[in-house]
Amino acid sequence: MARLIDTIRFDTTIAEAQQILLHSESDLVILDAAGDRIGTISRRDVDTAAHYGFSRGAVIGHMTVQHQRGQDSDDAPHFLSFLRSRLAPDLWHLLTVAANQAEARGWQLFLVGGAVRDLLLNSQNEFDNLLIEDIDLVVDGGDQAADAGAGVELARSLQAQYPQARLEIHAKFQTAALLWHDDPVFKSLGVDIATARTEFYPYPAANPAVAAGSIQQDLYRRDFTINALAIRLTHSRGDDLLDFFGGRLDLQTKQIRVLHANSFIEDPTRIYRAVRFAVRLGFTIEPQTEQLIRYAIASGIFQQVRVRVSADESAPANPNFRAVTPALQTRLRSELKYVLQTSYWLPALHQLADLGALTCIHSSLKADAHLWRQLRGGETAMRMSNVECRMANGNPLPVWLFRLEILLAHLPPEHRAEAAAGLQLPVETSDRLKKLAAAEDNLSTAFLNPLPSHSVQVLKFYDVPMLVLVAVRSDSTLRKIIWRYLTDWSLIKPPLNGKALKALGYKPGAQFKQILEALMNAKLDGEIRDRAEAEVFLQQNFPLFLKPTE
Ligand code: ATP
Ligand code: MG
pTM of the predicted model, to two decimals? Predict the structure, then answer.
């Protein structure tokens, strides 16, 4: 039976559209969230999308765009000139050279990812002459198997024109990067060149009837609609902005939206990425996407990651799992690191906690008021300029690692080191977390005696990062003592050194160390202030049997 109104929302899935089209002869009209027509999709489009494995994808990614939408139709075909007007001339030239080289080989070249997003986001801003330092390019070499390494080949030929750039090739992933370092023109520009990927999909580029199939599939495996936009740099007859998934609309309405329902199950690190983009750009995670995050977390996605990593012999459901998992752990770690070193790390962490995503660190990690207080305390500690929080190798403890140690320390003691190992953190961090409980025990009972010298005797056996960690977690009594130690007591110099003692007639030997320690303690406790008082102290407590020779 024919339906009267053949309209569907932009986020209707291909599978649902297929169902609807079983009962309909005409194309379906696609509406955006506001109810405006944005395009149409035919039965053939829908069947093709399904054939390519996009059944769970939204129709918006496969529709024919409607072009009579006022301002859109004015600027839609002009993104290349827009790009030219925004970019620094040298960078524009570089992209032109790359596009010409691709074209000469019959390939298409696209600017994708963050650069496109940020350019469109900043399109209202005054400033231009943008020198972007992070450029992602995708080469679509068409269907020929011989062009599988197109990205690598293009990078090589581009390097011939730009010999000052370093070339890095990741043959396994068919990607290459050109890297400038401290360059007078390009500063520290990095240009990643990838070959459009179709290999993740069930029917890789099998059907030549679908134009731009590879770039579309490449964009489809990306994280969010706003990161799945592409600008075509090579010549084209049609649009030079590729927006298969409604990314522009989401940029305008400030939404973080995944491309398909399985996105977070496929790659849980996207949960971290969703939050980082939301907080950084001031966007909201679109409700359905948020549901998918919560669903993925509730399904135990993070625990599965860990279990499968540790239990190597268990037969994984997905045959690719062993290849995929270590990379996943590494990506999780780097997303966590990325977030924890930004200026917006605290609101991001709050949002991750609200979503329940801290379970990726450990299933039993729960944020509470104590944890937030400790994390803020850690910031105060790091701003105390005269405390040098260094690792055993002498390098400063990175802020992200310090913040992460506070997070991990919030776990029950028996899980701390295990969680650190899971995130591939330095051995020093695991060690510190392993010893934390004992240190806290020891330190909490050690200060019944109020004398500074007594505190110093206990505290001097611990390194600074351990003391700071204990301090941010402890009650104010212990915290004050540790701060006092780090900022004052630990810097106090002994009133007399060994040489001075010798000059006074003391013989180096077993007692020497004891005398020096007694002098130091007396200074810490305020009994002696200067050299004269130190000598009196010596006369009284360590009288010489032989008078010093006059
Ligand atoms: P930033 O400005 O933070 O670098 P970006 O968008 O450039 O933002 P990158 O991490 O540099 O982010 O990744 C580049 C692009 O690669 C993204 O825009 C996205 O299209 C894709 N991408 C990165 N990580 C993932 C992921 N986990 N899943 C899917 N796509 C991803
Ligand atoms: Mg980037």
Answer: 0.78
